[in-house]
Amino acid sequence: MQNKDSLRHRASGTTQEESDLHLHTLTAHELHEMLKARKVSSVELTRAVLERISAVEDKVKAYVTIVGESALEAANAVDEKIARGEEISPLAGIPTAIKDNMCTAGVLTTCSSKILYNYIPPYGATVVKRLIDSGAVVIGKTNLDEFAMGSSTENSAFFATRNPWNLSKVPGGSSGGSAAAVSADEAILALGSDTGGSIRQPASFCGIVGMKPTYGRVSRYGLVAFASSLDQIGPMTKDVTDTAILLNAICGKDPLDSTSVDLPVPDFTRALRNDVRGLKIGVPKEFFAQGVRPEIADAVMKGVELLCSLGADFRELSMPIMEYTLPTYYILAPAEASSNLARYDGVRYGYRSEHSPDVLTMFAKTRQEGFGAEVKQRIMIGTYVLSAGYYDAYYLKAQKVRTLVRQAYDEAFKEFDVLISPTSPTVAFGIGEKVDDPLEMKLADVCTIPINLAGIPAISVPCGFSEGLPIGMQIMGRPFDEETILRVAYTFEQNTEYHTKKPLL
């Protein structure tokens, strides 16, 4: 097996010395070793990332807000700690981007929506607080589909983000800003949120690693809610090792979130073993239907064969209930969204329509002018399926299907340690290509949505290229068994070069 560092340098066409001059291209664990050895300072690293942002952000448009000054102050504090000889955490001094639907105290949090264009929270999300406590340097807030509703980051009220691999393509969504920032080396790490695939699908489109932990593993306190029973925060990184490091920092019980689970948090880096011997892999055939392109299926199956050549066993299985997951999701998620977004009425915070003759008109005009088309569509669908005459026919039935989805996974995991599928049925599509075809757009998440309905963990890792664009392989696991997923992903990564490739910008 080749040395990982040599693969990285070869893939990017640089020597070790040259790479040292391009700090923004390195991973968090590589930079941590350099910081500890005082080969570089956090201020130098942060400046390198800010310079990278200055160089390419006009093309990529990953960020809604950049906080360079406070980032340098945080970096300087880490450098002073190192100078005093104190121990630092693996995230200390590492420039990190935050999806702009997570509250950051004193920093604009817009959800890429006009209705929150001026909202500055007085508090920070628990995940952000944990990162800051770990010494991570928050460098900015990234663009997303408005209120995390979308699959392409074209639904932002401000601007569309572009895929660093091909600027005419979308980066995926809704965490497209975070994915593009990591892929374009505009951040070393990023956080995204995943309601129906919003971490994994953009990770697949942008050629990075993205993980949705088990529902309840990470606190959602301070995450602006879209669909509360489906939302989950997770890492978006350049490799699997960085994912494990970021998970270590953000997982764990939070008294401020009653849905966070009180379970011990393992050291996820201990799961990073280049060994899959004896593991049983299931390949659900339904995940290779519904518009999955042949080149995508071929790349994923080659990945499965590689894992088998390293000692794992695989067998195909059938999960027929998966056929119903997409319509189920698009009943449940809008129902929860219609409830969660009722709070935006122009009274307490955010945008307020002017020149309204009375309060009720102000409510209506504020929501009419403040929300975009995709958000309005989902609010109307959600209100309809929750209405008295249709609750049993749609919402209640969808909840029953959701139970069957979870049971199907429980049955599968009695036999298999992990399940593997494509992350997305296609590679990144063109900007504007699917704007007028909402069904086709929603099919982009067909392989990721079942995981959110079941609440299980899953990761997307790069496994190939088609037409010069990255392909993602999705690895699913048992609830709270992120370690096995990381072990499989790490083994795959150590024996391939896909994660070392860089887009040319």
Description of the molecule:
The chain is 39% helix and 12% strand. Strand 7, helix 10 (294-309) and strand 8 form a beta-alpha-beta unit. It has an 11-stranded mixed beta sheet, with helices on both faces. The chain has 505 residues and is α/β, with parallel strands linked by helices. The longest helix has 25 residues, at 391-415. The two termini are 30 Å apart. It is built from 17 helices and 11 strands.
Q: How much beta, percentage-wise?
A: 5-15%
Largest sheet: 11 strands, mixed
What spatial order of strands do you see in the largest sheet?
Answer: 1-3-2-4-6-5-10-11-9-7-8
Q: Strand pairing plus helix content: what structural class?
A: alpha/beta
Secondary structure tally: strands: 11
Kindly report the average pLDDT value: 94
* Helix content class: 25-40%
List keywords for this structure.
505 residues; alpha/beta; 11-stranded mixed beta sheet; globular; 39% helix
Quick gist of this model?
Helices cover 39% and strands 12% of the residues. The chain is of the alpha/beta class and 505 residues long.
Write the layout of secondary structure elements.
Layout: H1 4-12, H2 16-20, H3 28-36, H4 42-60, E1 63-66, H5 68-83, E2 95-99, H6 126-133, E3 137-142, H7 176-183, E4 189-193, H8 200-206, E5 209-212, E6 233-237, H9 240-250, E7 280-284, H10 294-309, E8 313-317, H11 325-340, H12 359-370, H13 373-386, H14 391-415, E9 418-422, H15 438-442, H16 449-454, E10 458-466, E11 469-477, H17 482-494
Helix pairs in contact: 4-5, 7-8, 11-13, 11-14
